[in-house]
DNA sequence: ACATATACTTGGAGTCGTCAAGCATCGGAA
DNA sequence: TTCCGATGCTTGACGACTCCAAGTATATGT
């Protein structure tokens, strides 16, 4: 319907994919007492990676530090994370998953990966997609990438 | 860092793409006095397609009808849309772009398509990506697709 | 005509998000 | 050591978005 460019069509597809995945896991979010912003935050907390500071979370979520305070409060109320002062710098607080938090995140990731429309592609197709998306997102990204340690 | 599946990695990439594109057009949104939800709504209003009713917008945006009322109010305040009663059914109201609305949408789409990381791919790569994404999003989508007329 | 359904709006409440200001801590210079 | 400017987080105020429940207007079928 729209005589627009290929890039435009791709943008629509990517957005629709994100949207469809979100919609597909709505029931799990409800079970886990999570909203989308909270689920995004939980998603960032990879149990296999070092626990991030509040500030690092703010960078990853592209939001104000005070928003991280808010989200961390909520996740703490749900017993999904703990906030502990970093060793060596008592200003910095580190977000760590609790056992419940790890389990909640596992369920979240499982639901998302099994229900997303992406799951309908074959492994070979997924690999091709991965290659293309990685190339698009590759370094020299937006140059506004001062690393944050 | 995460021993997760390929699908998981793809989800991260797709989400990051959507996020990066949003971030890249922030200044344009500010110029146009748009927030993200408002920009999403404006994005849906393709000038080349028939003007949608409020309800159709609610379906497209996956939100409550009252939210569309709210968004349409804002877009109207900005002189981007008009709300006119549909011929034949005076309950139904149709959202139409004004000239300013068309221009705002044009700027929005232009900024998004030129600045998204997707724009770094060659035309051939974009076509491959389009094929894969289209196949993933293809019909039998989520079956919850009763059409809405 | 009348009941029922549909399209939209209104009011109330809760979540999310930012900014400005404040507190605690750190690090370097005097 | 002591002081001062940065840094990390929190708080408070406010606005934007979103849903739900209830209300109004119009349409449809009996």
Automatic annotation (TrEMBL), chains A, B:
PANTHER family: MARR FAMILY REGULATORY PROTEIN, TRANSCRIPTIONAL REGULATOR, MARR FAMILY. InterPro entries: HTH_MarR-typ, MarR/SlyA-like, WH-like_DNA-bd_sf, WH_DNA-bd_sf. It holds the Pfam family MarR. GO terms for biological process: response to stress. Residues 3-138 form the HTH marR-type domain. GO terms for molecular function: DNA-binding transcription factor activity. Gene3D superfamilies: Winged helix-like DNA-binding domain superfamily/Winged helix DNA-binding domain (1.10.10.10). This is Transcriptional regulator, MarR family protein. Coiled coil: none annotated. It comes from Actinoplanes auranticolor. SUPFAM superfamilies: Winged helix' DNA-binding domain. It comes from the Bacteria.
